[in-house]
Each structure stands twice: as structure tokens, then as C-alpha cells.
Design brief:
By secondary structure, the protein is of the alpha+beta class. The protein is built from eight helices and eight strands.
Length: 237
Amino acid sequence: MLLDYDGFLPSFINVTTGKVADVTEARRLAVPSNSVLVADRGYEDYNLLSKWDNSGIKFVLRIKTSTGTLAMKENPLPEDKDGHILLDEKIILENEQTREKYPKQLRRVIVYDKINDKTIILLTNNFTWTADTISELYKERWNIEAFFKLLKQQLKIKTFVGTSLNAVMIQIWTAMIAILLMKYLKQRGKYNWSMANLIAFLRMGLFLKLCLQQWLDKPFKPPDEIGDDKLQTKIFE
């Protein structure tokens, strides 16, 4: 899944069997130039990274500790307030075959994750951002995990009604459509909804006759009489 940071909504989804690697699907993505892609270790494919770089795409990628690199220049570390930055350097790839795939210089930033007590190695093709910006960008990748968590917990994707391929696909895509509609309604409402509360309240009032927009704005106000000027279809105008 490719999650668009602007609205935290997916812009590309493909459901496959567990045997298909994430990076296989990533090669199919048509990403606009000047985009910033943030990805985990499963996307460490230097042919793909070279393709992104040649397309004007900036990336921040977590890499494996075993990835061989040669340091070209070490950048000065930031002040004490950014003490979680352990190393910031320009590098080239050490392995000749790998360097043929990506011959340009890269930037490696090593960050200490205090919460989980571990070191994270990040790779980027941007040399102008601060090291802290790179670490914060990677931190935002967690939003894709939060999206999956919301989908599983609120739309009950932990268990399946049927086990055939068709049944599983129907349940996944139905949940995906539902969560997108919920996010749209949350955006339309003036009340400060949390997704969990919005979904729970909609479940309780699913068969009530009320104006949806009015309810989204003022859920605890007694509903007005519904006339033809308040048809539910008007919410999509």
C-alpha cells in the first residue's frame, strides 16, 4: 500500500498472497516526480532506488545493518538537542555489483531510537535536509501501520467470514471502501470526531432517520425535521 501523507489515505493498494514481496509491487508504482518516498527495509532494491532517483524522487529508506558502504565524507553532528543522531555521512556502496545498480553517492544517517532502545540506519538521496528531518520523515512511516491497525480493529479484519480467495478479497475491499467513507465523513463533520467514536456512533444510528450532515456537525443536538432540501445525497455535492 502507498499511503498519501496529505490525507493519510491510500493512493495505491494491491492485495496479494503472502509469498509476494512488497518490493515486487513497488516496482509497479508510478510515482510523480518531486515526491518523497519513505519505506522500510523490505524496499532495499538498488535498481529501484536508482529508478526513483533518476525520476527526481527523494527517498528515505531504512536499510539492513549488513549493507556494505564506504564512507566518503562525514558531516558534523547537530547540537545536543538532536543527540539521537549518531552519524551523518556521504557514502558509496561497497559491493561492486550493488554499486553498478546505484553508482551515485548516497547519504547515511544513523539514529538512536530511545523508546525501543535500538539503532536505525537510514539511507537517502537528499543531501540538503538536516539529519533530524530525515529521522522525522522516517518516523512518519508509522502512519501506515496505524492505518492497518485502524482497519483491523474497527472494521474487524482480524477474522474472516469465508476462507476462499473471493470471500477474503470481498471482505478486505469492503472494509477498505468503508474506512475511506468514514474518513470522508470525518473530514466533512464540524464536530471533532475520532475515527473510533464515529464508527461506533454510526453503527448505533445506522437505521435512524436523520440528516447525516447535521448529525456529523452536532451529534448531540436533537434532529430537525427532514425535508426534501436535506436529502442524504447532498453530502456528496
